[in-house]
Recover the amino acids of this structure.
């Protein structure tokens, strides 16, 4: 017998070999549509779908115009109609009535009723986001209106209702205790595929009552690594890639086959300092640290963007708050050294300063890698502070270590990146950070009663002239007192295939503006 | 197939199945316990980590963390939490992800398919690469193919998978191959090839040894003596004997596959079980970690059992 493979055994072998292959078909999801064709807009970004809840990754569904908020923003940051076509405020400014857009329907065909909106807002009140901050007494639903009754005046309400955590989903989306099980929005696109945490697809909704968008289908893919995202743009695998890292941005700017767009965000990289720590309590120390930071160098070498060096905390993209007349934060190592000399901190043999008791000036700086530039900026600051004579240990951990360290008082310094217009009215984030005790991401062991009163007054019914004065005062105090030390302003950078027309970036990151885009003919 | 063959087949299969079944049970118990305890031993506050995973760095705050602590009863003693997991597991329930909120079993069902697809493609590719190279090297030990093969396989094996993966992306990005992502067949190629190169580096050397041993054997010498041409002699009298150590080595390589899958899935944004595990560890999503570890461990046992069966099928001496 020459043939060593008996048919029976061959069948057995084939069967065994085929087993893993049979198991290879990925489990199909509840939605199986969403195939990518030449007319599908392929978006790639770093943001993963960490949950369907509006307070979690809900911003991805509002950015892709699947879901809507009651209030929208125009390109200049002014409030415009969203799901609410108009709103009015009672004379005592404690009852806001939102009239819903006539003809608005959820993607399941049901009308967007006052009851549905009230339910969505009631759930949003008890979850992280912005609505918990609003002193709501009760919410009343009419057939196509919603009334918010407030315990006290709260003027930034439209800003909160423009935040993605207050997006309105159909009643059918919510399970027991308000958990979100599916996404049924009311925007021009409806979800057609969902594979959390990495991708989803959407197509034009036939329930949409506005002009039909030119882009019929979209597909979003979350890619965590910046280098991978940049390569996907280069290889033409994505039509739009959001969030290019500085090195890729620099490289792709020279690529003739791609358009690269960038916009300043209202986000600032800053040092959070524990002013309650004995070494950091004096304003002179904070000023010395600020003077030691070479912002231009960090902007040029790390962020590859000369305009990123922060001259004050709030960037020019927030014109109501940014004060171009304010003297910019400077770098002056000699002056910084004199400030520390003046406090009696002389350099030891290792170049690190010591106080009168001989204790080394050594501090721990915590940061996190979710924003990949942060650890690199932390390393630059470490070196710049060493030149000043302060030994810094950099600890790279989880973003939550910073609020946790704030609460248990162990935090010394932290490097973070704060979006001051996450809720589009910066006064709310600034109040959280600088007017209260629980400023997880803001001042620590520092307070200024005048600044706190000023910030809280912006929630009341003050006139525009008084508001302007308060904003100027807040900006000036933060610059003089340095409860946090600004380092750099962030940009959002995107690479776009030239076949796409009408592309633009939203500095408030509320929308990808897909319904304004079209394919180049 | 007569009754006697069936009985003898059963007699040889039964020990394998019993042994591997017992192992699966023991591995399940150990992996579940260990992943739970290791997560408990890690520094840092659970509630804060989970809140950071859920809400991201812009919204994570002490309030959010305390809300998570209340919702998930994280203050309960560890043994209560572990007992709860065991109770659920006995009811075939892996629980819900603490971050994403969906049932762990649904997530794993979705991820496992992708991981098996990647691992299967990588194993297939590694055989396509490793077999011919190993045969070429083994046919002339000490020849240029052998020496070059040794050099390349040592080099490839010395590269950590993530570095090799990055190099592959850079090399192939110009060739219009997708750098990352999934959903299209071409997306599979780069991660699978990265993994396959590491695997082929090992298996080609095993093939080379195996073929050298077979060629030196008496039965092969007889095949040549009776006048068979080289290709037929190898095909009929060398391949099957050679396959045995190669298949057995596949079992050893599974550890390499699992390690590679965990790293490469993150690099290539491939939505498999390794990618999910890395995220779950970062977010302290304990049910997800337990579920994914359990599934990988069971896969490991199952695939080793398959390797055993395959060896049994190839080698008549053990039957």
């Amino acid at each position: 017998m020459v043939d060593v493979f008996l048919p029976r055994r061959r069948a057995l072998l084939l069967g065994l070999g085929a087993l893993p292959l049979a198991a290879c078909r990925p489990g199909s999801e509840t939605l199986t549509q969403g195939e990518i064709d030449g007319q599908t807009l392929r978006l790639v970004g770093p943001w993963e779908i960490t949950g369907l809840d509006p307070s979690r990754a809900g911003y991805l569904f509002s950015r892709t115009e699947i879901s809507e908020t009651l209030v929208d923003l125009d390109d200049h940051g002014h409030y415009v109609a969203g799901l609410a076509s108009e709103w009015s405020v009672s004379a005592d400014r404690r009852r806001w009535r939102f009239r819903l857009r006539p003809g608005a329907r959820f993607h399941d065909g049901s009308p967007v009723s006052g009851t549905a909106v009230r339910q969505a807002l009631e759930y949003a009140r008890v979850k992280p986001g912005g609505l918990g901050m609003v002193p709501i007494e009760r919410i009343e639903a009419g057939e196509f209106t919603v009334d918010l009754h407030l315990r006290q005046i709260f003027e930034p309400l439209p800003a909160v209702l423009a935040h993605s955590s207050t997006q309105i989903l159909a009643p059918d989306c919510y399970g027991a205790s308000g958990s979100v099980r599916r996404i049924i929005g009311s925007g021009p696109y409806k979800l057609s595929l969902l594979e959390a945490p990495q991708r989803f697809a959407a197509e034009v909704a036939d329930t949409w009552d506005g002009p039909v968008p030119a882009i019929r289908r979209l597909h979003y893919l979350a890619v965590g690594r910046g280098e991978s995202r940049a390569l996907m743009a280069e290889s033409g695998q994505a039509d739009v890639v959001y969030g290019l890292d500085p090195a890729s941005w620099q490289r792709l700017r020279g690529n003739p086959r791609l358009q690269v767009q960038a916009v300043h965000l209202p986000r600032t990289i800053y040092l959070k300092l524990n002013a309650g720590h004995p070494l950091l309590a004096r304003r002179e120390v904070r000023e010395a640290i600020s003077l030691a930071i070479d912002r231009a160098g960090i902007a040029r070498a790390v962020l590859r963007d000369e305009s990123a060096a922060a001259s004050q905390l709030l960037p020019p993209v927030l014109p109501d708050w940014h004060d171009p007349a304010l003297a910019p934060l400077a770098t002056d190592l000699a002056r910084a050294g004199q400030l520390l000399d003046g406090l009696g901190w002389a350099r030891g043999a290792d170049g690190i300063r010591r106080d009168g008791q001989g204790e080394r000036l050594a501090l721990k700086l915590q940061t996190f890698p979710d924003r990949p530039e942060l650890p690199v900026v932390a390393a630059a600051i470490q070196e710049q502070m060493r030149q000043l004579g302060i030994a810094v240990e950099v600890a790279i951990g989880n973003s939550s270590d910073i609020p946790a360290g704030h609460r248990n008082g162990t935090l010394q310094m932290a490097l973070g990146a704060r979006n001051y217009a996450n809720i589009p009215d910066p006064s709310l984030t600034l109040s959280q950070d600088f007017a209260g005790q629980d400023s997880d991401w803001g001042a620590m062991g520092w307070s200024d009663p005048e600044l706190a009163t000023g910030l809280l007054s912006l929630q009341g019914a003050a006139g525009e002239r008084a508001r302007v004065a308060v904003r100027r005062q807040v900006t000036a105090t933060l610059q003089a007192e340095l409860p946090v030390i600004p380092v750099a302003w962030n940009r959002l950078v995107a690479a776009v295939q030239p076949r796409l027309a009408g592309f633009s970036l939203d500095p408030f990151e509320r929308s990808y503006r897909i319904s304004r885009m079209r394919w180049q003919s | 197939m007569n009754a006697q063959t069936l009985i003898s087949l059963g007699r040889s299969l039964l020990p394998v199945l019993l042994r591997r079944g017992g192992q699966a049970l023991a591995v399940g118990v150990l992996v579940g316990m260990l992943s739970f305890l290791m997560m408990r031993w890690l520094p840092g506050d659970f509630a804060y980590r989970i809140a950071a995973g859920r809400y991201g760095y812009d919204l994570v705050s002490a309030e959010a963390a305390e809300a998570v602590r209340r919702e998930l009863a994280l203050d309960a003693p560890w043994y209560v939490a572990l007992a709860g997991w065991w109770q659920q597991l006995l009811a075939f329930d892996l629980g819900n992800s603490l971050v994403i909120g969906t049932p762990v079993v649904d997530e794993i069902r979705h991820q496992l398919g992708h991981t098996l697809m990647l691992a299967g493609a990588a194993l297939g590719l590694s055989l396509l690469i490793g077999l011919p190279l190993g045969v070429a090297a083994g046919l002339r030990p000490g020849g240029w193919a052998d020496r070059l093969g040794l050099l390349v396989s040592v080099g490839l094996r010395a590269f950590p998978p993530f570095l090799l993966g990055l190099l592959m992306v850079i090399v192939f990005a110009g060739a219009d191959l997708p750098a990352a992502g999934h959903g299209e067949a071409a997306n599979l190629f780069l991660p699978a090839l990265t993994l396959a190169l590491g695997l082929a580096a090992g298996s080609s050397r095993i093939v080379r040894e195996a073929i050298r041993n077979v060629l030196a054997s008496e039965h092969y010498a007889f095949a040549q003596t009776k006048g068979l041409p080289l290709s037929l002699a190898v095909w009929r009298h060398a391949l099957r004997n050679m396959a045995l150590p190669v298949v057995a080595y596949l079992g050893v390589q599974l550890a390499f596959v699992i390690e590679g899958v965990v790293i490469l899935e993150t690099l290539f944004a491939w939505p498999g079980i390794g990618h999910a595990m890395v995220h779950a560890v970062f977010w302290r999503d304990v049910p997800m970690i337990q579920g994914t570890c359990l599934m990988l461990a069971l896969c490991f046992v199952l695939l080793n059992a398959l390797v055993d069966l395959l060896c049994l099928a190839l080698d008549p001496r053990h039957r």
Notes: The two ends of chain B are 16 Å apart (CA to CA). The mean pLDDT of chain B is 84.
